[in-house]
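[Discussion] Sanity-checking designs against the backbone

I'm trying to build intuition for which residues belong where. Below is a structure token string of 424 positions. I'd appreciate it if someone posts a full sequence so I can compare it with mine line by line.
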């Protein structure tokens, strides 16, 4: 019980969802996608995303009131994920593996370059989202990446002489690694401010349109007539496994954990691929793969334990004048100007440093469910602090407490504030 207590339940659930999505992707890469390699990659990308969008489109209707209030930077993130994660990344990795299947390049070249993905993601998470994790996390992240490589090459060994970095397929593999790694980061930005079903639906919808334009330009659209009943069956299976369903589960998990933790949890892909190969094809793991699997599992354990990117997340904001609603209900708040944070909307336990004093308090970040208003950032502390106009406040996040709720009246809100303050 002591070990379990050290874990954040939200992180456990999020990491588990990412691993489940990785399991579905490994099923695709090992057993489904090879069935389609005779067809143009852009055509396959278009069909699987168009079919997925048909399944997911109702979520856009249900959440349209939230979608229309997204910031320009949120729309930029959605377009990035759709272009790179949905279109470019998928086409690039499909072309890379198809080239390997045709003997144009070795599978080792594709695998070693594509697995640069977590490196790209970790760097961009630090630069773009400001995620700063402990040294222990980065050590275990490196161990996980190393174990992932050993697991991928454990069956036949690794031969540096087999690497062909100057082949076009190698470029496709690197492009896929960057595309998917960056999409993890920008995907995190989206789900911080939008529900995960709508995020998934928007990604599939925009990618479908982009892929349609591409196949019309390069005339791959005419190949759709050559798709047989069995091929359509495989495409439908992708939608309900490694396509729409996997991304739905993935964004559910990404909303609950940092992009840095998510990209390492995606390394469950090689582990699950080896396990599936054993279960379905009866290919027994050798000693190297068994050891690598155990090391990877230990690394996942440590990463989930140490990967809370919000703990001690700091930022500064300036006090601004609010509408005075807090005073009206007897719980005055301090309004702050920094509303472009890349964190989930919700209520947080924080430390607030004002002048040379430190206070414990609650922070609201997001849209008030009671009012149809833009994103707001408010701080509530018990102490009465006079003369705060234009004061700069430093906030240190301790823990995310809950989602933003809608209350019937002010008394319900006051009771909830008391419960939240008890946590402090």
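Best answer:
Here's mine. Compare freely.
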């Amino acid at each position: 019980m002591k070990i379990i207590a050290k874990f954040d339940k939200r992180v456990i659930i999020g990491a588990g969802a990412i691993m489940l999505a990785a399991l579905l992707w490994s099923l695709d890469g090992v057993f489904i996608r090879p069935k389609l390699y005779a067809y143009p990659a852009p055509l396959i990308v278009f069909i699987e995303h168009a079919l997925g969008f048909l399944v997911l489109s109702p979520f856009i209707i249900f959440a349209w009131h939230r979608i229309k209030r997204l910031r320009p930077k949120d729309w930029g993130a959605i377009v990035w994920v759709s272009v790179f994660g949905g279109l470019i990344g998928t086409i690039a990795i499909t072309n890379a593996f198809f080239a390997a299947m045709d003997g144009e390049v070795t599978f080792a070249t594709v695998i070693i370059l594509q697995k640069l993905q977590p490196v790209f993601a970790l760097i961009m998470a630090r630069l773009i989202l400001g995620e700063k994790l402990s040294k222990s996390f980065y050590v275990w992240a490196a161990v996980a990446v190393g174990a992932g490589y050993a697991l991928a090459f454990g069956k036949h060994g690794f031969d540096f002489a087999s690497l062909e970095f100057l082949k076009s397929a190698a470029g496709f593999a690197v492009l896929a690694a960057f595309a998917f790694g960056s999409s993890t980061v920008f995907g995190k930005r989206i789900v911080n401010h939008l529900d995960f079903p709508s995020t998934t639906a928007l990604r599939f919808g925009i990618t479908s349109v982009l892929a349609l334009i591409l196949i019309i330009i390069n005339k791959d659209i005419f190949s759709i007539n050559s798709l047989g009943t069995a091929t359509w069956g495989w495409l439908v299976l992708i939608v309900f496994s490694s396509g729409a369903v996997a991304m739905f589960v993935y964004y559910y998990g990404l909303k609950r954990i940092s992009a840095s933790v998510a990209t390492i949890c995606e390394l469950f892909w090689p582990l699950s691929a080896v396990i599936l190969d054993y279960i379905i094809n009866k290919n027994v793991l050798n000693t190297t793969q068994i050891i690598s699997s155990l090391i990877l599992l230990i690394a996942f354990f440590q990463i989930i334990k140490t990967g809370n990117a919000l703990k001690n997340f700091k930022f500064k904001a300036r006090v601004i004048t609010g509408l005075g609603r807090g005073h009206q209900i007897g719980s005055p708040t301090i309004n702050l100007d920094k509303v472009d944070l890349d964190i989930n909307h919700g209520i947080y336990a924080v430390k607030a440093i004002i002048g040379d004093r430190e206070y414990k308090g609650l922070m609201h970040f997001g849209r008030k469910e009671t009012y149809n208003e833009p994103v707001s950032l408010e701080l509530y502390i018990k102490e009465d602090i006079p003369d705060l106009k234009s004061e700069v406040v430093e906030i240190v996040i301790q823990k995310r407490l809950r989602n933003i709720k809608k209350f019937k009246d002010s008394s319900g809100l006051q009771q909830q504030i008391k419960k939240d303050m008890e946590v402090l």
